[in-house]
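anyone else get weird line breaks when pasting these?? whatever heres mine. first is seq + tokens for prot A
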Amino acid sequence: MRQGSRHLATALKTTLGTKVQTAHITYIWDAPNRKGVLSAHIPDQGMLWQTVVLASFPICLRDAHRIIDDGSSCTIAADVNFIAIADAPCPLGPLPGLSGSAAVDTPSGPRAIRDINAEDYVSVQNGPAVKVLWAGHAKVPALGRFSPMTLRRPYMGL
């Protein structure tokens, strides 16, 4: 990152090598606390690498627009499929996409996903129940990979 004469560089060490695969690259920063987190998530393999970025620069709205819209001052690689800027840190992990009324198995029986909170336990296939680390919601555009989809029996174990 560069802002005026200030320069900040951070490296994230992974074991990705040269194998071609889908990766979600995320930079989350907390401007008031001058701290950021750079992450690489491989959703197909459940792999996640993260590193803390100390003394990170805040990004102004003008620069955010320039990064996304101004091809003459910023270049985005052709392989980048999606860019988003949020007004609050967003958790990493599976993308939103389930209705709040969708049922999830818990040790005490099925519950609506909207009723699941952090610290609750949910059942997983062929294993012991696991603790929910984060529960919340995010508003996203209903476009592209965020488009609603219908799952039908007998696919995906339904």
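and prot B, same format (seq, then tokens)
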Amino acid sequence: MIELLQTILIYLALGACAGLLAGLLGIGGGLIIVPTLIWSFHLQGMTEAIVMHLAIGTSHATIVITSLSSIRAHHRRSAVLWPVFRSLTPGIVVGALLGVAIAGALPGNVLQVMFGVFVLLVAAQLSFGVAPPSHRGLPGTPGMLAAGGVIGTVSAIVGIGGGSLTVPFLTWCNTSIRKAVATSAACGLPIAISSAIGFVIAGWNVPGLPAWSGGYVYGPALLGVAIASMLSAPFGAKLAHTLPIIILRRIFAGFLTIVGVIMLLG
């Protein structure tokens, strides 16, 4: 029991850092949570074969909890485009389940490389302000289903809430950045729920999982990271209004570049 409490304290600290950076820099916590979970799982001596899957599955489970407070805050400001959310969600759910199936079939080192490449792409977008040109409007039902499918699949594989994909898509469709961010926060919930359930099922009978795991979701990390990040994210958001955003984006891009390179080097 003492060892369990010590483990939870470690994840509380990691969650506080993840929530602070996520609130400060406006990027989904998965980009921070996944690499910190990988690092902590290695420190705990977990089997290499399960570390990446466990980190991604646990990241999705934490996003389920933390996204609820974000959705509530955006909804109070009437910023969530709920019709857009409803149009994207069916594709997101199917895509997320497909992403879980793909991730479950891949070895951990391949997932690590994929995560590293994705992180470097996000870092480049943050560094150079790369943004797709505005389109004339949102696509019809087939286009929204396809977009949701792509967002859900990629997000499930790399353990994120989808903001790095949903926001650029919506701004490309001439949605204001404020409403794009708010709607992206709402879309993160079905991504996380579908992916978390999928990773629980995919890892249910996998040998070598640590105690207190439910499939590829590690309970102590879920509890510690979710609680601490939910509490610290608002503080990070307050800091974001007082610190220069351009500098913050470049600092975070530098951090992600380091993470991406480390992932690619194994």
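btw re prot B: The longest helix spans residues 48-76. The first strand starts at residue 213 and ends at 214.
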